[in-house]
Amino acid sequence: MSESAHHSEQLFTYQDYLTWPENERWELLNGRPYNMTPAPSRRHQEISGQLLTLFNNYLKGKTCRVYAAPFDVRLPQPPESAEQASTVVQPDLVIVCDKTKLDQRGCQGSPDLVVEITSPSTFQKDLKDKFLLYEKVGVQEYWIVYPEENTLCVFNLTTEGKYSRPEVYTERDSVKVGLFNDLTIELPEVFA
Length: 192
Fold this sequence. Notes:
Elements: H1 3-7, H2 14-17, E1 26-29, E2 32-35, H3 42-59, E3 65-68, E4 72-74, E5 88-89, E6 93-96, E7 102-103, E8 106-108, E9 113-117, H4 123-137, E10 141-146, E11 151-156, E12 167-170, E13 174-176, E14 184-186, H5 187-191
Parallel strand pairs: 4-8, 9-10
Antiparallel strand pairs: 1-2, 3-6, 4-5, 6-9, 7-8, 10-11, 11-12, 13-14
């Protein structure tokens, strides 16, 4: 995608997104493109890799699957078709338990759990825009990791369809994963 197109007021769809260069990473939020560069920091990658490993080990032999970015999550809103979806995100990690949402391009519809690891360039988008998006589309559990502070905020979807107040964890805590009754993540391992 050219920089001039990025700065225009034009709205884009998933069909447009598929034509952009494969060596560039973009997200679409309500048709507006967001460049995912620069590449994540080493610290970001360490945290992501550790969480991916812990989730992968737990999910062996289970129906749910965990995926790491880049992994397209298409969130078409009625009356949009999958190809006309105006929202495509690439969360750092997603867990999907409904295999009918998975295809060769990624996930179509809401994952069950989303993890976003903040950086200075994504902080506001993760905390505001994506928070509201994931709440609206029914993501059951949303984790926001703050690598510089070694802190995790967990939001769980209530029966009213709104996220609860955040549960805040620090680098010494254990986190009970709401999606699974028997999974606890030890944050000293994640933030080591």
